[in-house]
Amino acid sequence: MKKDKTFVMASGMLFTTTLIASAINYVYHFLMGRMLGPAEYGIIGALFSVIYFIGATLNTVQTVAAKFVSVLKAKSEGSKIGWLLRRISAKMLLLGVGVSLVFVFGSTFIADFLAMPARHVVAFSTAFTLIFVLFGMRGFLQGLQKFRSLSFSIIVESIFRLAVALGLVALGYGVFGALISYGVAVAFSVVFSFVPLARLWKSAEKYKINSSEVYNYSIPVLIAMVAITAAYTLDVFLAKHFFDPVTAGHYAAAGLLSKIIFFGSVSIAQVMFPKISEMYAAKQNYSGVFKKALAAVIGVSAAATAAYYLFPNFLVSVFFGPAYADVIPIVGPFSLAIGILSVNFVFISYFLSLNKTGFIPFLLIFVAAELTGIWFWHNSMQQIITIIAAAMLALLLSLVAYFFIVQSKNENIHNNTGLQ
After folding, report:
1. What CA–CA distance (Å, rounded) separates 333 from 322?
2. Residue 238 Rama label (left phi>0; alpha psi -120 to 50; beta)
3. d(C-alpha 292, C-alpha 277), whole Å
4. Residues 286, 292, 298, 301, Cα dihedral to 10°
5. Rounded Cα distance, 72 and 56, in Å
C-alpha cells in the first residue's frame, strides 16, 4: 500500500512537471511555426524527428541506467552507483562526439534527402555532443527515484531551448538559430542534472562491472526503443520526403499536437519502471503499481483524444494559426493513434522492468508494417494516419496477449507474487 501511494504521489509530481516542460517545448514549436511559416517549420519538424529517432538510443541509455541503478539501490550499494555513473558518463561523451561527427560529415547527404541546406544539419548536430551524457544522468535520477531532480532537468532544458531560439530567430538567424538552440539547452541541462549526483560521483567505489549482463539487457532494450521510437517519428521524416514543403509542415504540426498525448503520459511509465524494477528485485508485489500506471495513461489518452475530436478548430487556430487550417480534420484521428501508442509504451516499459523480452518480435513486425505501409501508400495525410492507427491497434492486441502469458507464468513460477 505504501509503495502504491508513493507511486501515485511521484507520478503526480513528475506528470505535472513534465507537462510544464512539454508546454514550454510546444510553445517553442508553436512560435517557431508562426515565426518561420509552414515551409521552414517543416525543416525543424523533419530534423526533430531525427533526434526523436536517435532518442531510441537515448531512451535505451536512460532505461538501462535506471534498471541497474534501481537494483543497486535495492541492495543499498550507493558507492557502486557512483562508479557506474563515472563509467557511463565517459562512454556517453565519446558516443555523443562520434554521433555529432557522423552528422557533420554526412550533412550533405542528409540535406539532399530532406531538401534543405546542409548548414541546418550541421547546426543541429551540436545537440548530440552532450545529449547522451544528459540521458545517462537522467537514468540515474530515475533509478534513484529522484523525480523532482529529473523533472527539473527536463524543465531547464526546455526553458533554455525556448529562450535561445527566440533570441536567435528575432536577431535574424531563422531556422539556423532555432536548431542550434537545442545544443545550448542540452549543455545547461547537463550541469543542472549533475548537481544532485555530485555526491555519488565523489564517493564512487571502483568495482568490476559485469559488462555481459549490461549488454545482454541493453540489446533488447535498444531494439524495443528503436522500434517504438520509429513508430512515432519516422512518419514525419517520410512525410517530409514524399510531400511538398507546405504539406510536410502541416503534417509535422498535426503530429506535434497529437504527440502531446505521448510526451505527457510518458512520465507515468518513467515513474512505474524503476519502482517495479526495484520491487521485482526485492520479490515484492508490484501489480498495484502497474494497474495504476495503465489506468492513468488510458485516462489521459482518452481525455486528450476527446478534446482533439471536439475542439480541433480551436486548438489548431490557437497554437498554429490560420495557415495550418488543413490540419483541422486530421488532429482527432492522429491523437487516437498516438493514444494507442501511449498505452503500448506502458506495456513495453512494464515488460522491460521484469526483464521480459518476448514481445519484441510483435513490436518489430507491426512497426515494420507501419513504415512499409507509409512508404507505399502516402497519397494524403489521412492515409498515413490510418496506417499508423491500424498498426498500433494490432500491436496493442499482441501486447495484451503477451501480458496474459507473462501473468500465467508468474503465477506458476512465483506462487502468485507477481500479478495479483
Report:
1. 20
2. alpha
3. 16
4. -110
5. 24
pLDDT of 260: 83
If you count them, how many residues does the chain have?
420
Contact 14, 300 (CB under 8 A): no
Whether the Cβ atoms of residue 222 and residue 59 lie closer than 8 Å to each other: no
Single out the residue of 22, 28, 51 nearest to residue 267, CA to CA: 22
* Chain centroid to CA 165: 21
**How many Å apart are CA 15 and CA 267, to the nearest integer?**
5
Whole-angstrom Cα distance, residue 265 to residue 55? 17
Report the chain (420 residues): mean pLDDT per 10 consecutive residues.
62 74 81 79 75 74 86 74 86 90 85 78 83 92 87 89 91 85 91 89 71 79 86 82 82 85 85 85 83 92 93 83 82 93 95 90 94 90 92 95 84 47
Alpha-carbon separation of residue 248 from 96, 242, 324, 363, 381 (angstroms): 29, 8, 11, 27, 9
- Predicted TM-score (pTM) of this structure: 0.74
Q: What 3 state SS string does 326-337 have?
A: HHHHHHHHHHHH
